[in-house]
Amino acid sequence: MSTLLLTSLCVTLFLMPQQTNAARAFFVFGDSLVDSGNNNYLVTTARADSPPYGIDYPTGRPTGRFSNGLNLPDIISEQIGSEPTLPILSPELTGEKLLIGANFASAGIGILNDTGVQFVSHLSHYSIEIIS
């Protein structure tokens, strides 16, 4: 369902005419599909800062994106004529760069009790029971 929504948004942006006075700030919320490297600054096992991630990115190096290159927010930023949004936890995101937007997405995040950090604690609980 979320893939269909993201695809629809992407197609809509490609077909929309460019407006010169349109707002350019772009804020991203989500999970690993749109994470641009926030997990590089968190203590987590959900990381994408080593090969093969990033092999098709312009620098050819891992960036923390859970893809081999650009992710959907990067492509949307290009389409609206903006720079890619930086992770909200990036030390580079200060002053004028914050006016471009920010990426709040984080892989492994969840809003339900059964997802995210609580899911990991459930797994830890079960592994302790299995060992006992």
TrEMBL record:
Q: Is Acetylation set as a keyword in this record?
A: no
Which N-terminal stretch is annotated as signal sequence?
A: 1-22
Q: Which UniProt keywords apply?
A: Hydrolase, Lipid degradation, Lipid metabolism, Signal
Q: Name one Pfam family in it.
A: Lipase_GDSL
Q: Which InterPro entries match?
A: GDSL, GDSL_Est/Lipase, SGNH_hydro_sf
Write out the GO MF terms.
hydrolase activity, acting on ester bonds
Task: List GO BP terms, alphabetically.
Answer: lipid catabolic process
Q: Which residues form a coiled coil?
A: none
The organism's superkingdom is given as Eukaryota
Instruction: Indicate the family of this protein.
Output: Belongs to the 'GDSL' lipolytic enzyme family.
**What name does UniProt use for this protein?**
GDSL esterase/lipase
